[in-house]
Amino acid sequence: MAKQIVKQRQDVTGLNCIKGESGKVIVDDKGIKDSWKEYMEKLMNEENEWDHMISAEVKEGPADCIRMVEVRAVLKKMKRHKAPGLSELVAEMIQATGDIGTQWILDLCNGIVKEGSIPEDGKSSVVLPISVDGVAQW
Q1: Can you name the residues that pair with 136 across neighbouring β-strands?
Q2: Among 8, 39, 90, 132, which residue has the least CB neighbours within 10 Å?
Q3: Do residues 44 and 33 lie in contact, with contact meaning Cβ atoms separated by under 8 Å?
């Protein structure tokens, strides 16, 4: 699947320049790659602060199963016209499957709850930085 995605994106070209953390414009390929690497490492590794005032009850025993009405509510709330993920599925495709697709998603989610782990292929993601104005900055 990853090879297929790489092949599909071969015509996508990189940015010619990027503003680094200091505000300086970087134009060389190595500098751009290093700058993105620094940015992504900082983004993915920083801790978010929270007020510790939020509490939750501890749940004992097995987790509750997800219900069909919950899956339908989530599918109805999904935003349309968004870019697909690695699965190449968009909300419109999932919503168009009707009861068959809803049942499949319900079974998948309840299987995850029952097993207590997410399948390996569901743990993959790709972060793709996109510049709106032609000069990426952070």
Answers
A1: 18
A2: 132
A3: no
